[in-house]
Specification:
It is a single chain. By secondary structure, the chain is α/β, with parallel strands linked by helices. It has one domain. The chain is 37% helix and 24% strand. It has 3 helices and 4 strands; from the N terminus they run βαβββαα. Strands 1-2-4-3 form a 4-stranded mixed sheet, with helices on both faces. It is elongated and about 50 Å long. 11% of the residues are buried.
């Protein structure tokens, strides 16, 4: 019986993966151990929306303006809110589109 490859997802809500040394070390270590590692993080504005860094697939979303809720709360709230705004739908669509590639 073939063993399944471990899949790991890191969600960073407050900064770029490239500048989060703790998450980078963990992600690279897991990748080197054979896991498929993905990271979702805010885009600093200068990075591509999707890239592979040291074997780790990084998906970036537009960083929300100050004062907004964390992304995990925003997406959860948006899913339950019947008065969902167009910008939330656009953001969720962008994130979904990134994950499908």
């Amino acid at each position: 019986m073939k063993a399944r490859k471990l899949k790991v997802l890191f969600l960073i809500e407050d900064g770029s993966y490239l500048y989060d040394n703790r998450v980078r070390r963990e992600a690279i270590c897991l990748h080197q151990a054979g896991a498929k590692v993905s990271v979702i993080c805010p885009n600093s504005g200068k990075e591509p929306l999707r890239s592979v860094v040291d074997g780790v697939t990084v998906y970036r979303y537009p960083k929300p303006a100050l004062g907004h809720r964390p992304i995990c709360l925003e997406l959860g709230h948006s899913a339950r809110d019947p008065g969902i705004t167009e910008s939330r739908l656009e953001f969720a669509g962008t994130l979904t589109g990134l994950l499908e590639h």
